[in-house]
Amino acid sequence: MSMDERRAVKISKYLAKHLRHRPERIGLTLDAAGWADVDALLAAAARHGFALTRDELEHVVAVNDKRRYALEGDRIRALQGHTVPVELGLPVTPPPDLLYHGTPAGAVETILREGLRPMGRHAVHLSADAETARRVGARRGEPVVLTVDAARMAADGHQFRVSANGVWLAGSVPARYLR
């Protein structure tokens, strides 16, 4: 099936809104781990004026460049970035020595003073490479890439988890671990 790129982006954004942030807006229920029934999602979307097919859903999950979603049988969930309460069940994982965080230049002064906070999400999102962090930071302006001394954080007792799509998650990153 061929899908127009604009349609794929629109579906991905719709999924993000309702699987990460506002499932109740369309009457969707997520289980404790963030999973939603695919048929319930498709029906809810149609009821709220955003009809999509199972094929379109599968296509978006398969080709999404950030691999934001997991589709298992008749269930779908976002892999991270939730603002609604979910427990993704990710194990604590030793991080690489360095991780990276991309942010707009205007936020750097505050971050270097206060550290990285989840800002309404469950965790701070970190990248394993500087280029990915640069792309993330560029979404909202001129990017700056901060380096996180993850090895020292872990040695000091901070916990890290990694999502299925390679995004590293930490509860927060105190300023002393940033440069």
Provide an overview of this structure.
It is a single chain. The protein is an alpha+beta fold. Helix 1 crosses helix 3. Helices cover 32% and strands 18% of the residues. The strands form 3 sheets. It has a 3-stranded antiparallel β-sheet with strand order 1-3-2. It has a 3-stranded antiparallel β-sheet with strand order 5-8-7, with no helix packed on it. It has a two-stranded antiparallel sheet with strand order 4-6.
Radius of gyration: 17 Å
Q: What's the shape?
A: globular
Structurally, the number of domains stands at 2
Percent of sequence in beta strands: 15-25%
Poorly predicted sequence stretches spanning 5 or more consecutive residues: none
Main β-sheet: number of strands, strand sense, barrel status?
3 strands, antiparallel
Distance between the termini: 45 Å
Number of strands: 8
Second CATH tier, the architecture of the largest domain: Alpha-Beta Barrel
CATH class of the largest domain, please?
A: Alpha Beta
Q: Which structural category do the helix and sheet elements fall into?
A: alpha+beta
